[in-house]
Amino acid sequence: MGRVLLLNATYEPLQLVSERRAVVLVLAGRAEPVVTPEHPSVCRSATIVVPIPSIVRLHSMVRLPTKMRTPPLTRRSILLRDDYRCAYCEEHADTIDHVVPRSRGGRHEWTNVVASCRRHNMLKSDRLLDELGWRIRIQPRVPEGPWWRWRHVLDPDPLWEPYLPKAS
Ligand SMILES: [Zn+2]
């Protein structure tokens, strides 16, 4: 079963839906096809034949819940935000570090976690930056925008590409 990219009325990508769901939205007048492949698959019923689009766009705007706009705080999403670069030396990072260590009251939240190389993670241990005389080269932030949700899409249809957000 193929997948169809569903866009908001604003052309912002919302999610992937099944071909059947996309056709139902179009037939119900709630969405319109934006891009249809040159040789589309078709959806048949007793009375109609509908070419299946690659992208459909809703006619009315839906607001994404905040939960969907902010990535879950996982090791992988932190590494993605920081581009797998250590916050202390810019070398390749594959661990995460709490800037203010949890043992010192630091919280497990976006503004207190950074990607870190193994060496700096070990060296830093449960000390504060001031105690080490270290500087952090990025200001850790809550990732903005919907790009993160689309970094995990496997094998995307090339026709979707102009509509998928890029990391900035
Ligand atoms: Zn490092």
Strand arrangement in the largest pleated sheet: 2-1-6-3
Q: Give the biggest beta sheet.
A: 4 strands, mixed
In terms of per-residue confidence, which ranges show pLDDT below 50 for 5 or more consecutive residues? none
Distance between the termini: 32 Å
Distinct bound molecules: zinc ion
| Residues in helices, as a percent range | 10-25%
* Order of SSEs: EEHEEEEHHEEHH
**Backbone shape:** elongated
Number of domain units: 2
Strand residue percentage: 15-25%
**Helix count from the secondary structure assignment:** 5
- The value of Rg in angstroms is 22 Å
| Number of E strands | 8
> Mean of the pLDDT scores?
89
Structural class: alpha+beta
Describe the SSE topology:
Elements: E1 3-7, E2 13-18, H1 19-27, E3 31-35, E4 42-44, E5 49-51, E6 55-58, H2 66-69, H3 75-81, E7 95-98, E8 113-116, H4 118-124, H5 129-132
Parallel strand pairs: 1-6
Antiparallel strand pairs: 1-2, 3-6, 4-5, 7-8
Zinc ion (ZN) binds next to helix 4.
Task: Describe the overall structure.
By secondary structure, the protein is of the alpha+beta class. The protein folds into two domains: 82 residues, no CATH class; 62 residues, Orthogonal Bundle (DNA Binding (I), subunit A). Helix content is 18%, strand content 20%. The protein contains five helices and eight strands, in the order E-E-H-E-E-E-E-H-H-E-E-H-H. The strands form three sheets. A four-stranded mixed beta sheet has the order 2-1-6-3, covered by helices on one side. The structure holds zinc ion (ZN). The site of zinc ion (ZN) has 8 residues, from helix 4.
